[in-house]
Fold this sequence. Notes:
By secondary structure, the protein is an alpha/beta fold.
Amino acid sequence: xxxxxxxxxxxxxxxxxxxxxxxxxxxxxxxxxxxxxxxxxxxxxxxxxxxxxxxxxxxxxxxxxxxxxxxxxxxxxxxxxxxxxxxxxxxxxxxxxxxxxxxxxxxxxxxxxxxxxxxxxxxxxxxxxxxxxxxxxxxxxxxxxxxxxxxxxxxxxxxxxxxxxxxxxxxxxxxxxxxxxxxxxxxxxxxxxxxxxxxxxxxxxxxxxxxxxxxxxxxxxxxxxxxxxxxxxxxxxxxxxxxxxxxxxxxxxxxxxxxxxxxxxxxxxxxxxxxxxxxxxxxxxxxxxxxxxxxxxxxxxxxxxxxxxxxxxxxxxxx
Length: 319
Ligand code: NAP
C-alpha cells in the first residue's frame, strides 16, 4: 500500500509517498481502509521536528481519518464493512490503510461523509474539551472564540451555539467575517483590524466575555486578560510563541487562565466527548465543513496550505 513516510524532519518536502507493507490488526484493533484523512496544524509541527512530542523516524503523520473497517481483531467491537472515523492510529493515517485501537475508532454517523469524518477527531474533541472541561461553558454565557474560522474554531462555534451560548467569533478579513456569520455566530469580528478587541467590550456592555477560547495566545493573551469578564475563564488552545502579559488583570478579576492539550485526555473523557459529539452529528447541529482537498501524494501542498491564514473549512487528503 501507499503511505507518506518522513525520514528526516524538515519542510513539507520531506513528506514522501512510498510503498510500505500493509499492517495487520491485532486482537483489539481494526484495519481501516481509509477514504479521507484530516490535516491538522500539529502534523506540520511534528514534521518540522519543533514540537514537544518528537516522532520516531521513519514516521507516517496524521491522527484523523475516516474509512471502512477491512478486518477486526476478535476483541474489537466492529464489523467488516462498517463506516468509522478514527482519532489516532498505531502508525499514522497519511496512508491508504491504518491499524487503529478499537478505543480510537467511532461509528461514522450516516449523515456524514468520509471527508467530514476525517474532520472530527482533533478539531471537535479539542473544541469540546476547551469549552466544557476547560472553560466550564454554560448556557446563556458569552464566549469569545478567538480564531473561530479554523478547524477547532468552527467546531467550537457549532458546539457553543448548540449549548445555548452567545458567541462572539473572530476571523481574518471581510470574507472571514462573512464566513462566521454563515455559521450563525451572533457577532463576528475581524482580528486583522486594529482595535477590534475593544468591540468585544462594547458588545458585552463593558463586562467582557465569561469565557475566551484562544487559538493564538502568543498574539492575543494580553488583550484577552484585559477584556475577560470578572471571574472569567481563558482557555489556551493554540500558541505559537511566548506572550507578554500583565498578570494584574488575572489578579484583580479573579481570572482563570487554563491551558489544554487534547493529548492529555483520558480514555473515559474521550469516550464521553465522542458520545456527546455523536448526539450533535445525529441532530444535524454539528456539521464538519470541508475546505481544500488534495490527493495523498500532495500532502506537502496540504502542509503548506494549512499554515496560510484564510482557510475556510478542514483540509483533507484523499488516499
Ligand atoms: P487552523 O484551522 O489552521 O485555524 C487557525 C485559526 O487561527 C483560524 O481561525 C485563523 O483565522 C486564526 N487566526 C489567525 N490569526 C489570528 C489572530 N491574530 N487571532 C486569533 N486567531 C487568529 O488551526 P486549528 O486546527 O483550528 O487550530 C488552531 C490552533 O490550535 C493551532 O495553533 C493548533 O496547533 C492548536 N491546536 C491545539 C490543540 C490542543 O490540544 N491544545 C488541538 C488542536 C489544535 P483566519 O485564517 O481567518 O485569519
